[in-house]
Amino acid sequence: MEGDEMKKTDQTIEASDLLTEGMGQLDLDADSEPDFEELDVDKWDEGKGDEIICSAPSELSFSEEPALPPVLRRKRDDLYAILAAENVDKARLIQMARSEGGLVDDEIRKKAWPLILNISDEQTEELPTQEEIEAHPEYKQVVMDVNRSLKRFPPGIPYDQRVALQDQLTRLILRVIIKYPNLCYYQGYHDVAVTFLLVVGEEKAFYILEKLSTEHLRVCMEPTMDTTSRLLNTIYPLINRKNPQLHDYLERSFYFIFSLNSKLSPYLCKFALIIPHEFG
């Protein structure tokens, strides 16, 4: 039995890794998802489980990114040149974000994402109070999801920094759904939110997440799953169009469904952005 479980885990990881590789052709920013290592669950610090934590954030710091190959160094230089121009060529920026290597590094993403989404540095607004946040009907569910999402954070992150990051992620999500009562939180939304939080910090992440939630991800946040289900049904045909080998692998993989929740929530939501561009 134990051998079967290990085999299932290996096949699940293999399927999700292959899918992630194939998604690089389609993603708005092919490298924007943090490449987290598989963690030993026996060594995880579960903290206080589902206890609601929402303390003041502390400064977060992560290790430097590994050295880039020459082709990505050249691409990085080109991206910095585009961003340094008096009139940024957004079309070119988006084109490069969609190409192999994405936007290359987080310093570029910090500048490029707000530009692509037409978010101004001057945007400010009054924050909801802690009482308003905790009074929201989805608050406890958001906290439980965030506190369980240890694998979404960089491995080896100190406990106090991880708690601060979880607190910020909880606030970030609640700020959006408090401001827009018509948007419904869904499990997996925190996977999307944490990507922006890790790169640009809580404030800019809010405006990015707000923009995406009210536009590209809106169909994923409706009261029912009807529209989302229809959208998900386009995934296999879209994968087949872009990568037949990946499509055939997934069709043969019994364990593909197990990888959806843990690995693909951000990708599934990004299809909502990709599909209109692919099929007009």
State the CATH class of the largest domain: Mainly Alpha
What proportion of the residues is helical, as a percent range?
55-70%
For the record, the CATH architecture of the largest domain stands as Orthogonal Bundle
Quote the distance from N terminus to C terminus.
Answer: 48 Å
Question: What is the fold-level CATH name, i.e. the topology of the largest domain?
Answer: Helicase, Ruva Protein, domain 3
**Main pleated-sheet profile:** none
**Total beta-strand segments:** 0
The low-pLDDT segments are: 1-59, 258-264, 266-280
- Strand/helix succession: HHHHHHHHHHHHHH
Rounded mean pLDDT is 75
Proportion in β-strands: under 5%
- If you compute it from the alpha carbons, what radius of gyration comes out, rounded to the nearest whole angstrom? 19 Å
Number of helices: 14
Count of distinct structural domains: 2
